[in-house]
Design brief:
heterodimer, A: 13 helices, about 0% strand, globular, B: mainly alpha, MetI-like fold, 2 domains
């Protein structure tokens, strides 16, 4: 048998492996979907019948809806804090001239690396001294700090293909630095800023551990309610919410990849 | 002369421009830096202080703590009468605030010696009943409870009296300070946390290896596939990455349960005859962890492998190397930075996991994060929660520094 033949077999096996892996990655996400439409209250197949009762329970019920509302509000507010902070810092890194840039970057992305259990414990101590535990402001600020690394990284990635001389060109044409930033740089960074904001929102929307430490009953978020549900008594209403969250994930993924494609087209044009 | 002066002036202007650029960059990064320091770095430093803080005894029994400072337990004598009097005075105050402080001290002392809480509480009650006459508390306290006549009792108070004690840190390392002040391991049957640390590292290592074994060929396939297939492969990794952690976990619980689809499939296909226990044990934990961590491995691998020119492998094969040789001598070494970044990232993230193991593992699989959370809000022992958190933090930071030194922070962040 020739190498060529072996290589062909190897390639085919590689593709088969890839297809199997795709199934292993995606199928587990879909397993919950049919049960969320079950007429019964058990988590096993076959289903006794079709019904929308679990969706009615989740989307017409007070506690679930208020948890969803809390999560949206906290996600939105923390994104509004994290996005400008991360964007400005990303611009600073692209300009350069920063002291100890590697250490600085290491510190600024640390909230993404340090386990949330530790961040949560520390924030509990700090916030209880400041009276910020069980407050909306506390949860928002905590989520914002967890989200900033994602904005910083995403916007930095956008700026990697960007020629900063454009800013000097704007300045030589008489634009003030602020004007050049807003009129030249922000439009170029826009896809990066938007996908960074998307990342920030997703981070907050899915955060459980830190929230568990610092949130009070009034700030009960969706992940917190789901966590308690799975731990105490898992029923199809949780799967209905899980299905809803997966639909959101698919939408986010599509919008993020569209944004990234816009961005890569632009940088390619710059090249 | 004139040109020299001009170049001096140019240099000066250049310096000024550079300085201005530095200041601008610093001003741009300052808001995030200050925010991160205030809301992230300083709170983490408070864990450090909380791991050694022990204010309960000096607040609850202030006079006793002070009086015991002059006592030398080395000469095997009980403390003097003034220490007993001080204790009686500490316990006799009736305000609710003082009673709460004594209760906190009793709790703290109970960590040092089992049964101390009931000793202190019953003594407090007895002292309050007879607090009318002062004096000679030494005989009376020993008469109330013989343990007041033991040197060990007073040594425990003395050990816990300073505002900062190594007690929680030692506990997290399964060590303790003996009555004579020497530090040693606790008895074999009481050791817990070192084993938990080892288990945490083991779960993280196994998860990393599974992800590497699956992620490496997967990323390589992504690189060499055509545009559409590569896009599908990327989508298959990114979808779980963007899906809510709890949605994924609940889905896995459905699949892996005893009557779940996977067990039905295994029985139907004749691979097993009775359902396997796939969840609430180590098997379930590794399956779910690997599924969640795969993106952290695949993405850095993919971005490194994309940078390996495909003609290198062709060159090696045209020079007569067989594919295996070409892989081991050309492809693998060039992909190592991606392996390093992916493995360290996967290891760090898995070592800190808490929610998933608590939902799909049995008590025997719980990792450090679980115990930090447990001591924080189930048993409300902030000192031990902090010390265990510190242990986890030290491991993670050591790996983060290693990652920064070897593959670089930018690579970890996914930047070029």
């Amino acid at each position: 048998m020739s190498y060529r033949f072996l290589a062909r077999i190897g390639s085919m096996a590689h593709v088969v492996f890839g297809v199997l892996m795709m199934l292993v990655l995606i199928l587990p996400l879909l397993a919950a979907v049919p049960i969320s439409f079950s007429a019964g209250s058990f988590l096993s197949y076959p289903l006794p019948g079709f019904s929308m009762q679990w969706y009615e329970k989740v989307f017409l019920d007070g506690p679930w809806l208020s948890a969803l509302w809390n999560s949206l509000l906290i996600g939105l507010l923390s994104t509004l804090i994290a996005t400008p902070l991360g964007t400005l810092a990303a611009y600073a890194f692209a300009r350069g001239h920063l002291p100890f840039p590697t250490t600085l970057l290491g510190l600024l992305i640390a909230p993404m690396i340090v386990p949330p259990v530790i961040t949560g414990l520390g924030l509990y101590f700090a916030f209880s001294r400041l009276g910020l535990t069980s407050t909306l402001a506390g949860v928002v600020v905590a989520h914002a700090v967890l989200a900033t690394p994602f904005v910083l990284i995403t916007v930095s990635a956008t700026l990697q293909g960007f020629d900063l001389k454009l800013m000097q060109a704007a300045a030589s044409l008489g634009a003030s630095p602020a004007r050049a930033f807003l009129n030249v740089l922000v439009p170029i960074m826009a896809p990066g800023i938007l996908s960074g904001a998307l990342f920030a929102f997703a981070t907050s929307f899915d955060e459980v551990v830190v929230t568990l430490f610092i949130a009070g009953p009034v700030q009960r978020t969706l992940p917190l309610k789901m966590f308690e549900g799975i731990r105490d008594n898992i029923d199809p209403s949780i799967l209905a919410m899980a299905t809803f969250l997966m639909c959101i994930a698919v939408l986010t993924l599509i919008s993020a990849s569209l944004l990234m494609r816009t961005n890569s087209n632009r940088t390619n044009k710059n090249d | 002369m004139i040109t020299a002066a001009r170049s001096e002036a140019d240099k000066e202007a250049g310096h000024r421009r550079l300085n201005r650029r530095r200041v601008t960059s610093l001003l741009l990064v300052a808001p995030l830096l200050i925010f991160t320091i205030v809301v992230f770095l300083l709170p983490i430093v408070t864990i450090l202080t909380n791991a050694v803080a022990s204010p309960e005894v000096s607040t609850g029994l202030p006079r006793t703590s002070l009086a015991l400072a002059g006592w030398h337990p080395a000469d095997r004598n009980l403390p003097g009468g003034e220490v007993f009097d001080a204790l009686a005075q500490d316990l006799s105050e009736k305000s609710p605030e003082r009673t709460r402080a004594v209760a906190a001290a009793a709790r703290r002392l109970n960590y040092e010696v089992g049964g101390f809480r009931s000793l202190l509480v019953s003594t407090e009650r007895a002292v309050k009943k007879s607090a009318d006459d002062a004096g000679n508390w030494r005989e009376r306290l020993i008469g109330m409870d013989g343990r007041w006549g033991d040197i060990e009792t007073w040594q425990a108070i003395r050990r816990a009296a300073p505002a900062h004690t190594p007690f929680y840190i030692l506990s997290a390392l399964d060590m303790r300070q003996a009555a004579d002040g020497s530090i040693g391991m606790v008895p074999e049957n009481q050791r817990t946390y070192v084993a938990v640390l080892m288990r945490t590292l083991k779960v993280a290592a196994v998860t990393t290896l599974i992800c590497l074994a699956l992620g490496y060929p997967f990323a390589a396939l992504m690189v060499k596939s055509g545009r559409n297939f590569a896009f599908m492969l990327l989508g298959a990794v990114m979808l779980p990455f963007w899906t809510s952690l709890l949605a994924k976990t609940s889905s896995w619980i459905v699949i892996l349960q005893e009557q779940g689809p996977l067990n039905k499939l295994l029985i139907w296909s004749g691979i097993v005859s009775s359902p396997l226990q796939l969840i609430f044990n180590a098997t379930g934990l590794y399956i779910v962890m690997a599924h969640m961590m795969l993106p952290f491995m695949v993405l850095p691998l993919y971005s490194t492998m994309k940078g390996i020119p495909s003609h290198y492998m062709k060159a090696s094969s045209s020079l007569g190397a067989n594919p295996a040789r070409g892989f081991f001598h050309v492809y693998l070494p060039m992909s190592l930075p991606g392996v390093g970044a992916g493995a360290l990232l996967t290891f760090i993230v898995s070592a800190g996991y808490y929610i998933t193991p608590s939902l799909v593992g049995s008590p025997r699989e719980q990792m450090l994060g679980y115990f930090v959370a447990f001591y924080a809000y189930t048993s409300v022992n902030w000192g031990l929660a902090s010390a265990l958190g510190l242990m986890l933090l030290v491991c993670v930071l050591a790996l983060y520094l290693l990652a920064g030194r070897t593959v670089g922070v930018r690579q970890i962040a996914g930047l070029r």
